[in-house]
């Protein structure tokens, strides 16, 4: 590759941030549950549940790119138009 750098990300920054915050939330809940005296299985389940619920929460809280929002709206409009009886 003659000095070319490939600037291709595996995940967009917003997605990585959402997953990071959800993971941190799950770990925090798991640790707090363990410190409260529950067993390891309940701590793990509590952490996983918290992480799972944190993903849609942070998805709504963290503002998306305005261009991405327009693209989503146009995709939704196209999906509505394509739901014909044909």
Give a brief rundown of this model.
By secondary structure, this protein is an all-alpha fold.
Provide keyphrases for this structure.
86 residues, mainly alpha, 3 helices, flat
Alpha plus pi helix count:
3
Number of E-type strands? 0
In the predicted model, the low-confidence regions spanning at least 5 consecutive residues are none
Number of domains: 1
Residue share in helix = over 70%
Mean pLDDT: 85
Please state the structural category.
Answer: mainly alpha
Give helix and strand order, one letter per element, not per position: HHH
| Large-scale geometry | flat
Question: Termini separation (Å)?
Answer: 49 Å
Radius of gyration, whole Å: 20 Å
Largest sheet, strands/sense/barrel: none
Strand content: under 5%
Q: Could you characterize what this model shows?
A:
The model has no long low-confidence stretch (mean pLDDT 85). Helices cover 71% and strands 0% of the residues. It is built from three helices and no strands. It has one domain. 9% of the residues are buried. It has 86 residues and is mainly α.
Give a topology summary:
Elements: H1 13-35, H2 40-61, H3 66-81
Helix pairs in contact: 1-2
